[in-house]
């Protein structure tokens, strides 16, 4: 299997492994999300970006429909954020910039 294919299937498999479906759509509650992040993230570059005390805050940020659980789309958003963090760390690029705005020039007296 090609590398990108493997990544895609791994994302789906990890989500389904940890998501408790209770006979409905698979979703991660806060404990399941915490478990995924603690077990499945091992590299120091990414682990440093995750603070166990901030899981509740992360849950609020990810849980766009405010149902107290993270669905697959919301989980993918989390994975994308972690991928961007890793990219920035690896390349030194991709930090926040002024999008389409020119910095204000200093006024001379």
TrEMBL record:
InterPro entries: EF-hand-dom_pair, EF_Hand_1_Ca_BS, EF_hand_dom, S-100_dom, S100_Ca-bd_sub. It holds the Pfam family S_100. Coiled coil: none annotated. PROSITE patterns: EF_HAND_1, EF_HAND_2. Keywords: Calcium, Metal-binding. The keyword Calcium applies. CDD domains: S-100. The keyword Metal-binding applies. Residues 50-85 form the EF-hand domain. This is EF-hand domain-containing protein.
């Amino acid at each position: 299997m090609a590398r990108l294919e493997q990544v895609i299937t791994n994302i789906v498999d990890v989500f389904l492994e940890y998501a408790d479906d209770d006979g409905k759509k698979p979703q991660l509650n806060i404990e399941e999300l915490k478990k995924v992040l603690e077990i499945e993230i091992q590299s120091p570059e990414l682990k440093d970006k995750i603070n166990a005390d901030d899981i509740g805050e992360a849950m609020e940020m990810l849980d766009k429909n405010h149902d107290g659980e993270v669905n697959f789309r919301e989980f993918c958003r989390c994975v994308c954020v972690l991928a961007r963090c890793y990219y920035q760390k690896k390349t030194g690029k991709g930090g926040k910039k002024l999008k389409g705005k020119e910095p204000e020039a200093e006024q001379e007296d």
